[in-house]
């Protein structure tokens, strides 16, 4: 390791120690945290089944930056490249449409065998896997409804797809020795004001009940349900609203997935986590960045990211939280997007861990809000960057922007030749 990195680190360690923060211990804790990298950033949410299908479900990718992955091999190679530039051991989050098979298989007929290559790869790379049924970009989702569709046949198709997805997830958990988190998100909703808000919700609940009626060991698969306020084409009403899934998850013992872009523009998920975890067991995060709407921009080191990280650290919620990413920007290098978003998420957690939490809590309790504000603000310029650099070097990944030249090289040698 470069001497200057070590020197800065030692000085930072000394400063943090003055506030009772054990930096070595923090780094050990940080190394235990897994971030789930969403595979769909690598190819603009296209997938490999039904390749000719348009992206549906009221989500959108803009930009046509060259080099996106077109095959499972390319996607795995790209993920390897990204992961080589991110400190720690993580997970990869697959959607059902990323099945790796030559077979023409419908979503309701998917089986663990269609994902065998992914499992082999994950094992070889020491990665965990997470999963999602894909209830969009499909003929049967064209009119905007899936699990809550008024037509029973269509509902049944999606129920079968979700059941198949849970079995695939279970197989991941069994093969990899760590639970797979399966996230259920459906786009169902109306563009314009509905007359009947209740019936679609009744149907969604019934469909979910049927999906979850099959018991699967939680050491292999953990179910999460993701709400949303609106989507393109479901501006007025979304069946799976926040309140719907809060109620559902609490009564059924499921995890709730909070996506940072799925609420009103001034509403933040950081303020929701502690309340949820008072009553629910687990949560899944979709760390994302909405810009004016659910735009899924690459995660930056903004106030909300820091606040989410602080909530997890200060409330000791990390043990019960699964951290996944959910953004897709087609206007920049696809690998750089992963690297920037993931490094920022880890870095935000580190920053949160490098705060004198106990002292701050005491100060707050004593009513000394002047000191609270003063200390929180001063800590914003404490030398967390020196600790981060040391951590990257120690984990064998590029320090500071050193990763960028590797991405550029990979772009020249691999991406631009596709
Ligand atoms: C959509 C949800 C959902 C998707 C992924 C692709 O608004 O955020 O999580 O982004 O499943
Ligand atoms: Zn999401």
From TrEMBL:
Gene Ontology annotations of biological process type: L-lyxose metabolic process; rhamnose catabolic process
Enzyme Commission identifier(s): 5.3.1.14
Query: Does Acetylation appear among the keywords?
Result: no
GO CC term (a single one): cytoplasm
Which pathway is recorded for this entry? Carbohydrate degradation; L-rhamnose degradation; glycerone phosphate from L-rhamnose: step 1/3
State the source organism's domain of life.
Answer: Bacteria
Against SUPFAM superfamilies, the record matches this protein to:
Xylose isomerase-like
For the keyword Mitochondrion, the answer is no
TM annotation in the entry: none
The subcellular location is: Cytoplasm
**GO MF assignments:** L-rhamnose isomerase activity; manganese ion binding
Cofactor(s) of this protein: Mn(2+)
- Record's protein name: L-rhamnose isomerase
Organism field: Paenibacillus albidus
Q: Which gene encodes it?
A: rhaA
